[in-house]
Amino acid sequence: MEYNFCVKASLKYEAEVIVVGGGLAGCAAAIAAARNGADTMLVEETGMVGGLATLGYVGPLDATTKRNGESFGGLAEEIVESTRNLNKAYGGPNYYALKVAPEMLRFVLLQKLKEAGVKILFHANLIGVEKSQDEISHIYLSTKSGIEVAVAKRFIDATGDGDLIAFSGEEFVKGSEAGVFDELREGNLDKIHYQSGTLEKYDAYKSNGLMQPVSVMFSMGNVDCALAQKYCNRMLTYDDLGITKEEVMKLPYFGTVGFEENGDYIPIPQGRVLIVKFGIDGKFALVNMSRVVGIDGTDAVEKSKAEEIAQMQILYLCDFLIRFVPGFENAYLYTSSHTLGVRETRRLVGKYVLKGREVINCETFDDGVACGSYGIDIHDPQGKSKAIGGMLKGDYYHIPYGCLVPKTIKNLLVAGRCISVDHVAHSSTRIQGTCILTGQAAGTAAALSLKNNVFCDELNVEMLKSSLRKDGVFL
């Protein structure tokens, strides 16, 4: 049954550029647009900027450098260095030995947004779009004050899920495409990395449209990380831990999602122990072991259910680690994410679709406006295998401007996780450092298109590249 719900909405917000989504890509886009002279507004559905890097406690901010260690510069380098400095000043004796600390990153991003003059609207959800021919005229936002209207000349979708793309009627895909594994086979990366030094072939998915699993992050204190890491990144058997299947079957959460019986292997959600140590004394561990498969993060019911399951997995995993894994005997839960980590949902089908083989072979393009360097990292959409893929064949690859530009809407750009790439390429471009770089490119492009009185798809890319280089971006 369908219902009609009519409501009056008043014009409340105006800007030249509106960025929807306050994750790393959205923050970078907003900062870049404002620094390049555009009156800019950032719309964020929660009460914190940074997205999964802050709310989701995804601490390892990767792909800010080439594989050889040379920096990509720009906002990626600036954000990392600023966060490190703030972390050293206020992080205390156990500050993260990662590139960034989530607690500090949120303040760094907020400060840079404010210094750039970006107007921020927290607790606002995008619920609709109005178009005039091939332009977005205004968007509808659900706020505490009711349904409100925001108008702008340029819009940037940095929602991660491609919400603005979908509401605008632009073409998008979700998950794996038919024949996408050809990209992996051509690069000899159709492998499962069960553990260091062991590779096994991975059969292609039995169906299309499969998306990587969702998960949550957490950390534990008082961990003997040196001892625990001996069991890390491996598919563990009962013999590895010196326990019996019967002991595990007695656990109250045995048989729940992620803890189903798994033959000779330990029944844990990701199938392996995976931690990153941090803190000056190395006694803290960032734990990446939660996993829920078969979830569409754009479906309200599925996402809500996955949130329940993944959050409970934190408690169960803490119990399991303390009971059975050497190094965790005296550990305790330290922090946990405040939102579900979604790796993959909608992706734009834009002016250009970057292919997995182009990423694997580290190809460059005349219209390359951002760089990536992370390996192919497809978390198994069908089960508990480790990531599928492997290392790239060079130091970096280009992301063409066409990956940020829709086919029809002329005043819309896209940044971050939902740019125009295939399933294989996406497993690299979704990484946080790359999201910052595509965000900076999109924000700069939006501002330049206004200055030059052209639509986004008409912008001179050489001018854009020159502006990015002036702002310290390596291309």
List keywords for this structure.
about 475 residues; alpha/beta; 13 helices; about 30% helix; about 20% strand
Main pleated-sheet profile:
5 strands, parallel
Number of helices: 13
- The neighbouring-strand order within the major sheet is 4-3-2-8-21
- Which secondary-structure class do the elements indicate? alpha/beta
Percent of residues in helices:
25-40%
Residue windows where pLDDT falls under 50 for at least 5 positions: none
Principal-axis shape equals globular
Strand content: 15-25%
Radius of gyration: 22 Å
Architecture overview:
The protein has 475 residues and is an alpha/beta fold. The protein has 13 helices and 21 strands. The protein has helices spanning 24-35, 74-90, 102-116, 163-168, 181-186, 225-228, 238-241, 245-249, 300-324, 356-360, 423-429, 432-451, 461-470; strands spanning 10-14, 17-20, 40-43, 119-121, 125-132, 135-143, 146-151, 154-157, 172-174, 191-195, 198-201, 218-221, 275-278, 284-287, 332-336, 346-348, 368-372, 376-378, 388-390, 397-400, 412-414. The strands form seven sheets. It has a five-stranded parallel sheet. β6 and β7 (146-151) form a beta hairpin. α1 packs parallel to α3 and α2 (74-90) crosses α3. The longest helix has 25 residues, at 300-324. The chain is globular and about 70 Å long. The model has no long low-confidence stretch (mean pLDDT 93).
